[in-house]
Design a protein that fits this description.
It is a single chain. By secondary structure, this protein is α+β, with helices and mostly antiparallel strands. The chain has 3 domains: 47 residues, Orthogonal Bundle (Helicase, Ruva Protein, domain 3); 107 residues, Tetrahydropterin Synthase, Chain A (2-Layer Sandwich); 80 residues, no CATH class. The chain has 11 helices and 10 strands. The protein has a 3-stranded antiparallel β-sheet with strand order 1-2-5. Strands 6-7-10 form a 3-stranded antiparallel β-sheet, covered by helices on one side. Strands 3-4 form a two-stranded antiparallel ribbon. Helix 2 packs across helix 3. It is globular, with a radius of gyration of 24 Å.
């Protein structure tokens, strides 16, 4: 028997590297006195499906789901990824992803790490994922997880589970919530409004626009103040195209999303999340 103490961190490290189950990793480390590389070889010799052998393969397919709690106060969107659309379209895999989503909602999960430790029929989801990896032979996992809490949360799934959207609203408005979620799916805004755009995105866009303006032959010899003014105008155009409330409403181009929400009962968007494959 091994005299080396096998810690939870050791087991987790081996699981992350191989995708093998927790008990298999514990046994592999125990049998090999904690030797990490020897434990990997032991798993391979025992016929375990080792995820490390597929670490260079991308899991860009999968199933995206978005769902709210019964009271519509919380919404969760997640992606259970795989490598091929053949697997992602398989009814059993879709059902597997749905069972994970149901567990996330039922257990009020707040992160992917927390979700991996939730049990379904007595078995942790992380272990179920590893079992599925072994049976399918593809790299799979919970690759994306988002959550919104608000007075009212609307959810929307687009394109046969290829994209999911959550929208937090200041009050109950099912129709407006669905319409705005569809807007987000179609137009992919970067934030609710200009104030919510991350500073790094604003800085990057401003730098690009300023360089473009300065490079225009018509601006040769023009003062820096003029270039700055033109760049600021173009940045405002970026905000109009890329922030939710300023965008033209897809169902009626004659009004903005902000105008639509006002007409729907002065509903306000608190935040949104958009989860897509890839």
């Amino acid at each position: 028997m091994s005299t080396v103490t096998i810690t939870a961190a050791d087991i987790n490290k081996l699981r992350q590297a191989t995708g093998a189950g927790m008990m298999d990793c514990r046994k592999a480390l125990t049998e090999n006195n904690g030797d990490f590389e020897a434990a990997i070889d032991w798993l391979r010799k025992k016929g375990a499906k080792v995820a490390a052998l597929r670490s260079d393969r991308d899991a860009k397919e999968g199933v995206v789901l978005a769902k709210t709690t019964a009271d519509n106060k919380t919404g969760i969107a997640l992606c259970v990824s795989c490598e091929t659309d053949f697997v992602s379209k398989n009814a059993d895999f879709v059902a597997f992803a749905q069972s994970i989503m149901d567990a996330a909602i039922a257990n009020n999960v707040k992160s992917a790490d927390e979700l991996n430790n939730v049990a379904i029929n007595g078995q942790k989801i992380a272990d179920l994922v590893n079992d599925k990896l072994a049976s399918i032979g593809e790299k799979i996992g919970i690759s994306k997880f988002e959550r919104i809490d608000a007075a009212y949360v609307a959810s929307y799934i687009h394109g046969a589970n290829r994209m999911g959207v959550l929208v937090g609203l200041t009050k109950e408005a099912p129709e407006a919530g669905k319409d705005v979620a569809m807007q987000i799916a179609a137009m992919n805004p970067v934030a609710v409004d200009p104030d919510a755009v991350p500073a790094d995105i604003v800085a990057r866009e401003k730098a690009i626009i300023t360089d473009q303006v300065a490079a225009d032959p018509k601006m040769a010899g023009k003062p820096a103040e003029m270039i700055e003014k033109i760049a600021s105008g173009k940045l405002n155009a970026f905000f109009k195209e890329s922030t939710l409330l300023a965008q033209a409403f897809v169902k009626d181009g004659g009004m903005s999303v902000a105008d639509y929400l006002k007409s729907a009962g002065d509903v306000k968007v608190t935040e949104f999340k958009r989860v897509a494959l890839g």
